[in-house]
Amino acid sequence: MLFQKSLVSIEDVSTEDIEEILKISDSMVKLLEAHKNPHxxxxxxxxxxxxxxxxxxRLSFESAMHRLGGSVLSVSDVSSSSVAKGETLADTIRMxxxxxxxxxxxxxxxxxxxxxxxxxxxxxxxxxxxxGQHPTQTLxxxxxxxxxxxxxxxxxxxxxxxxxxxxxxxSLIMALSRYDVNINLVSPPSLRIPDHFLARIPKSKKVRITxxxxxxxxxxxxxxxxxxxxERFADKNEYLGLIGSYSIDEVIAGKMxxxxxxxxxxxxxxxxxxxxxxxxxxxxFRQASxxxxxxxxxxxLMMGVS
Amino acid sequence: MLFQKSLVSIEDVSTEDIEEILKISDSMVKLLEAHKNPHxxxxxxxxxxxxxxxxxxRLSFESAMHRLGGSVLSVSDVSSSSVAKGETLADTIRMxxxxxxxxxxxxxxxxxxxxxxxxxxxxxxxxxxxxGQHPTQTLxxxxxxxxxxxxxxxxxxxxxxxxxxxxxxxSLIMALSRYDVNINLVSPPSLRIPDHFLARIPKSKKVRITxxxxxxxxxxxxxxxxxxxxERFADKNEYLGLIGSYSIDEVIAGKMxxxxxxxxxxxxxxxxxxxxxxxxxxxxFRQASxxxxxxxxxxxLMMGVS
Amino acid sequence: MLFQKSLVSIEDVSTEDIEEILKISDSMVKLLEAHKNPHxxxxxxxxxxxxxxxxxxRLSFESAMHRLGGSVLSVSDVSSSSVAKGETLADTIRMxxxxxxxxxxxxxxxxxxxxxxxxxxxxxxxxxxxxGQHPTQTLxxxxxxxxxxxxxxxxxxxxxxxxxxxxxxxSLIMALSRYDVNINLVSPPSLRIPDHFLARIPKSKKVRITxxxxxxxxxxxxxxxxxxxxERFADKNEYLGLIGSYSIDEVIAGKMxxxxxxxxxxxxxxxxxxxxxxxxxxxxFRQASxxxxxxxxxxxLMMGVS
Lengths: 306, 306, 306
What we know:
Chain A has 306 residues and is of the alpha/beta class. Helices cover 36% and strands 15% of the residues of chain A.
């Protein structure tokens, strides 16, 4: 029941809602393959209010709306625009409300999207708020796994890289915890998953914490790689010393099961070598492309039009 | 008869045209409420050329065009784009003419919109030219009052704040002067309405000039509040001394007639307190939302399609 | 056979393809005159990825797509956006591929568009890559001449200005060389056409190289004027000394045949005086407007929908 609801955190979404989103996303994939425009959003306008630029996320939302026949009001960098010059977030949101039917907001501050929902009756989609949430990324991650394995159960999922700061990974872990999965958390000690976060994973899940990719590489069904940012390290030598051991190349990919997939929220820099793009395990580009059908499904459900 | 005409100043528009715009705007409100896209602008393209950013105004125009089924070419900041690098306004306008059917122009210099009309046979809408005109703001102001009181006659309208520099207020006064209204002009002495402007109000109107909001607060039907900009004052103490007396709070709003409305062109900063948003008198958000149906009406009339 | 092909250089296009583009462009002119939207691109999305701003070119492509009923994902300045922050061109192109059906790319570096075609199976249109190619400009130049003279054969075409660096002129010469034309190359010695380029013009063409506009002004059917950029000269006096002799005014235009036309890729600065705009020979604004029907034709052919 997402009709006219906002989506701020993946934890707002029931497991039944996720099931529905996955199924409708799948029908959207078919629609896209058939190159059909359902025109279901013909009389709808979406506003994309980006308080910090994120071209990839913005274009994915805008493509989804266009593929449904809808229109878009695009503000690619609110903070450099005239809006918000001394204006409160409340008033900027009310402006978007006056001109559109659904508001996508990206903001550098955690909690901004939740706050925004208090100023409007129109549905808001959080497209990332600082170190907070980015629920549509999690939905497209789930969809990618589901499309590949026809289920979210019975899988061995390894999350690799920065597990301390990465909001993408945090949300994905919480979402996967609803299903029957084994979770492997692979990171350097300094970027280990925070304890308070670990405590929220249900005891019934099999969780393995390791520093070594080798411990999990051959048993993983999903290898979800994230970026390790140099800025996180006070000691640059520490960074340089470990960056290599979490970088996926052809040799590492070669150790994976044939059916296993490599995912990444993109953009990637060095953590997946370009040579991996041509292996049978690479799924990060397809994962990115699923952003469109998943957001089409979500918009349709929120607008109550399908 | 707005067909294929430009709209540079509210004074270009006959009283009959205003009546027509109000009526069609009203039918556009109904269309929006029914969430119907008439597709009347299906084969039309609007160019929004903003020589200075004004996201609020730009999005309002773009929303209006999308709600009619039309397309938009959007240049949110012409001056930072490649166009106009040494190019004359004339050639930039001719470019827009070649690619679109109707051109919305915002420019920091007074007179720019009028000048623009000389270089193209296509209709131009002035979306604000420096201290000059912003006629669609005036039209939506009139529509807001008309929607509320079912008439523009017999009203007591108080304009509050910066009456010296505020182009919004100047245009609104001239437009209201066509109707049977009493006009109260409330401002500090240093921001009094200019004499040459006062001289243009017909003698038949009852005009009251005062520094005190208290003089008019209980008799006003419309309280139109504008921003007092700190930059206008050489003496910052003078600014600080008077800013408070023109700031509307719940107590002041409480002195108003129950049927009276508070308007503001937005964005507001301190001149209306957030607590006022929840009073029955606040109409500034609805006023802003009327920007869409009023611009829909205007575009339809100018393109001759309805 | 442009279906699903990329367009990087005018030399990629066969003479038969050019004929087809000219004919379909002509039917697009009629469509535009009748103000009909064929909706042929209803379920198609175009991404315009501009790694350097070029508002004129961007809007021309976007207008073309809108006139066909299609949608646009617009990135007016990729380099200042989040995309490409350490991301490779390959990954940025793959992002656009995931969200759209056809990708228009403008890049400051020569060869970027060709490189881009290697990372995607979707058609790419080069909208200018540094000193490289800008094939749609050439197509609209050809269309302008063809519309005027109903043929590309039997004409006397004079190219004036910077023939050394001007990519527009280079592409046009190569394209015109396929037809029965006389080519006059008018430039100061320091901006003469490069020898290696001259060598590529078929021996069968009558080519005249001169410094003097007077040598060709009365015999030309087409006078194609380009900008001489001050930056090209180490010696500013040399620039100032010659800039005047290649600047078209009413007197020079008056020496032309009545049927002759003046063209320019725009924007122009001083090389064509505004007074020339009102002569019967000026065609540069119409030329610019043909950017829309020519790009409509091209998009339709590449998408295989008409």
